[in-house]
Design a protein that fits this description.
The protein is of the alpha/beta class. The protein contains twelve helices and 15 strands. Helix 2 crosses helix 11.
């Protein structure tokens, strides 16, 4: 009987080890995979999968556990996002990534806080890679929420600093999507730009329905009638592609300062746009130098023909999550969140730090311009257009950091 018991125990251990080594840490991806923003959601999903696979190929985390991205379609809806959160908690998933839509992010933060308060043994950690509403790490800040993209106040601070040096800018038109992100960007520009360039006239400030406008010609007509020489927009996805396409077709002669001109579909809409017409403020672009993620971007393009890697912050999100797990020696969200606070990381765009006060990533930004491929400053074109993005200005982290009003309740 003793021999039998010993054999049974040894067998249990033998089977337990490989099971543990191959255990998966599931991460729910809650973003639009249908509807007007499906192409952007699909692009984000593929980026998360590629980075998780890269980590898994190098041994995973915590002695061999693999990361698994679980896609969930929220149809760009805050209400649908909350429905999916119920599926997440029912299935025991402890991590969520999301980015397309600050409305969905705000709804999830509130619901996750309530869930975690009621279920301390089943807590969920929320990592956001793209929502730009500054309130998410200010009035709505949470111990269970992290932001890996620079928010509106940070991007507007960097953008308006540059615009203040461009003496050709005289009249500015602001246009954005009518939800938290678009509203916040417009508010930030109106508050910031006149302080830096009192001579600049804001000649228009327009919000349009989110994801519902099929023809931007009427909005372009307003821009043209205003006499604006510069447009600032936080639009993304189809709303940005259609706006820029309508502007091009109308012959509108203005500069566009954007956040997301390099994101999937928009370069195709631009086509052969005149150089130095479209700018973007972002954390990275394909032609940045030095380019520490050049091989990763090349491999991504081979794996997903027709797609181009551009979201470095997705890479940073998963890499820092993996590093936090190793630091915590655990996949428990409470321990991982504690480990991630104040964490420094050598990301694809340089040194970044996760600010402990509000869980906002502080990182370098870059202003780039849509330009013809030339083999030097524009080594890579995008979406077969013959155009790519060239660096105009590098913005260090200290010049993007803004104060926070977060009063975080810690665990």
């Amino acid at each position: 009987m003793l021999k039998s018991l010993a054999f049974s125990l040894c067998a249990s251990v033998a089977f337990a080890i490989p099971a543990s080594a191959s255990a998966q840490i599931k991460i729910a991806y809650i973003d639009p995979l249908s509807g007007a923003f499906a192409s952007i959601g699909d692009f984000g999903l593929k980026s998360f999968i590629a980075i998780a696979d890269d980590i898994n190929a190098k041994g995973g985390v915590l002695g061999g556990q693999k990361l698994e991205i679980v896609p969930m379609d929220n149809k760009a809806s805050p209400e649908e996002s909350l429905t999916l959160l119920k599926k997440v908690t029912d299935s025991g998933i402890r991590y969520i990534v999301q980015g397309q839509g600050s409305g969905a992010a705000g709804a999830l933060i509130n619901a996750i806080d309530k869930w975690n308060d009621r279920n301390p043994d089943k807590t969920v950690l929320f990592l956001n890679y793209a929502s730009n509403d500054p309130e998410l790490t200010n009035s709505k800040c949470s111990f269970w929420y992290y932001s890996f993209d620079a928010h509106n106040l940070m991007k507007v601070e960097a953008l308006t600093n540059y615009m203040a040096t461009d003496k050709s800018i005289k009249k500015v038109f602001i246009i954005g999507q009518d939800y938290a992100h678009g509203q916040q960007m417009a508010k930030a520009v109106v508050a910031s730009l006149p302080k830096k360039r009192p001579d600049i006239e804001i000649v228009g400030n327009e919000l349009h329905p989110f994801g519902k406008v099929k023809d931007f010609a009427p909005y372009v007509a307003k821009i043209k009638a205003s006499g604006a020489d510069t447009v600032i927009t936080g639009n993304w996805g189809n709303d940005l592609s259609l706006l820029l396409r309508a502007s091009k077709e109308s012959g509108l002669k203005t500069k566009f300062f954007t956040y997301f001109a390099a994101v999937r579909g928009t370069p195709t809409a631009l086509g052969e746009m005149p150089e130095d017409t479209v700018y973007q403020i972002s954390e990275w672009h394909r032609n940045i130098q030095p380019n520490k993620l050049e091989k990763f971007a090349d491999d991504y393009a081979k794996r997903f023909p027709g797609l181009e890697f551009s979201y470095v912050r997705i890479n940073t999100t998963i890499q820092m999550l993996a590093q936090a797990m190793e630091k915590a020696k655990s996949a428990d969200p409470l321990k991982v969140s504690t480990a991630m606070e104040g964490m420094e990381f050598d990301a694809g765009n340089g040194k970044v730090v996760m600010r402990k006060d509000d869980h906002q990533l502080i990182q370098p930004l870059v202003l780039s311009a849509y330009s013809k491929k030339n083999g030097t400053t524009v080594k890579y074109d995008t979406e077969g257009t013959g155009y790519g993005f060239r660096t105009v200005a590098m913005i260090p982290p200290k010049d993007t950091e803004v104060p926070t009003t977060c009063a975080m309740k810690r665990m």
